[in-house]
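Progress narrative, work stream C.
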Amino acid sequence: MLKTGIPFFSLSFCFVLGFGLFGTVFFEVIMRVSESHAENPETFEMAFLMSLIAFMGVAFLFAMLYVQRNFETAVGMSRTRRSFFAGSLLCAFTAAVCGCAALYLSALTEQLRLKHWWNAYPCESNYFASLTPTLLALFLFAFTILAQFIGVLFLRFGKAAFWVIWVLWMVGAFTIPRAISDLENERHTVMSHIVLTLREIISWLPAFAWLLISTGFLCVIALISYRMLLRQRVS
C-alpha cells in the first residue's frame, strides 16, 4: 500500500508547502501595504497558519482519495479488513509525516525571513516556538487516527458524512479565528466568552493530563473506526 500511496504522499507534501508559499506571498503584499499606512505595523506567521490549514485539509484528501477508493478494491481482491485497516493507518501516518515535514519547512523558512527581512517590527504571534516535539508527535498521531476515521465515515454514510464534516469545518474556520480576535481585542461577544470559558477549563489541568486525555480519546476513535470498518460491506 505504501508504493501505491507515493503519489498521494508527494501531493500531501506539495499541497502543504504550496499553501505556505501562498501565505508567504500574501504576507509580503499585506506588509508592504501596511508598512506605508499603519502607524505601528506588526508581523505575523501567515505562512505557518496557511500550511497548518492545508495540513488539516490533507486528512480530507486522504479520506476521499485513499480510503474510499481503495477499500472495495482491496477487500474485493481477498484482502482482509484488518489488513486494510493496518495498511491504511500506515499510509495515513506516512502522509502525516510528509505534511508535517512541509509544515515545519514552511515555518522554519518563515522564521528566517521574519528575522532577516522584518526584524524591525514585532511579531504578534509565536506559533513556531510552541511547536514542541511532543506537540508534533500528537499532531502526527491525531492526523493518522482522524484521517482514517473520516475515511471510514465516508465509506459508511457517503455524501451525508461529507457534508456534515464540511459544514463543521467551515463553521470552525469562520467562528474560531473571529472568537480569538474578539477575545484579544476585549470585545464582549458570545464566542469570546466561550473561548474564555474553555481556556479556564483547560487551565485547571496540567498539560500532561490533557496529553493523556487526548491520547485516550484518539484511541477510542481508532477503536470505533476499526469496528466500523470490520462491518463495512462491499458493494
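Work stream C, second folded protein:
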Amino acid sequence: MSEKTIIVKTQKDLDKIKLDFEWRIEIRWDIETYNIKFNNAYVVLYWSIKSMYGYASIEDMYGSASIQDMYDSASIKSMYGYASIKSMYDSASIKYMSDSASIQDMYDSASIEYMYGYASIEDMSGYASIKSMYGSASIQDMYDSASIEDMYGYASIKSMYDSASINLMTWLASIILLKSAKKIVAKWMNLIRQIGIEKIDMELWKDVNFIQIKDTIENNPTFNMYQKLYPVEIKKTKAILYKSVHKINWEYVSDYDRNFKYEIWKTIKEKCDTNQNDSCSQWIHISHLQRAIDFGRSRDDVAILECEVPIKDIVVSKDCDWKVRTSQLKVLRELPKEER
C-alpha cells in the first residue's frame, strides 16, 4: 500500500485526517458519521457509513459497501458492485450508479446523473431526479414530482403515479404500471401500460406499445377485481388468504394489538368497517401470500398464518394495494418456512 494512502478503521482515524490531505483515503470498517469536506482527497468506501452529510464526498463506493443515510450536499462520484444506500435525500447526489448498486428510498431533491447496468431504486419521490437511466436499470415506485430526463435501453419502472415525469423514453424502456403522471414523451418501441382513466399529458410516437386497462380497484373495489390482480386460491365461497403475526411463547399475536391472539382451527369474528375509502380501517387485515411474507420479513418472531375467509365478508377498499379486511376468518395452519 502506498505511504500516501490512509486506511480508516475507526471513527477516530477518520476525524484526525487533515482537511488538506491530497491523497487516497480508504474506509475499511464501520464508521458512524462522515461530514468532512476534504480539499482534494480521493475517498473510497469499502465498508459502511451510518450517516454521510454536509459536503462529504466519496469517489468510489463498491463491493458490498453501504450507507444508511446520505443527505445535505453529500456526493458520490461512482457507486457500483453491490453497494447500497438506505435513504438518500436533501440535495445528496450521485454521478454514476451502475452494476447491482441499490437505493431503498430517494427523495427531496436528491439526484443521480447516470443510472445503468442493473442498478435499482425501490422508492423515488419528492423532487428526486435522474438525468439518464438506461441498460437494465429499474425503479419500483416513482411518484410525487420525481423526474427522469432520458430513459432508454431496457430500463423499467414498475409503478409511476402522482406528478412524476419522463422527458424522453426511447429504445425498449418500459413502464409496467402507470397510474398518473405530469408528462411522458415516448419514442420507438417502448411499452407503457396505464392502469385507470387518469388524463396524462403523453406524446407517444407510432411505434410505442400503449395499453390502457380502464377497470381498476379504484373504480371497481370488489373481491372479484382483487383476485384478478393478486394470486388468490378460491374454494367455492371461500378464499385462502394470509396473515403475518408475531409468534411469542407459542402464541400467535397481532401486530397492531398485542392482546389480540389467533389460534389454529379457531374461527374469529369481529365487527368490520365496510367503508371502502380507507384500506387501513378496522378490522382483520389479510392479504395474498407474498405480501404477508414481505410485511413480516424484518421480524425475528414472524409467523405466517394460512386462513380461510368467506368471500361475502371481505371488504376491498378503493385505495387497496395489497391488503383487504374481513369480519371473520378461520385459521387453518402456520405456514412452514419451506413454503415461504
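The longest helix spans residues 289-296. No further action is required on this item.
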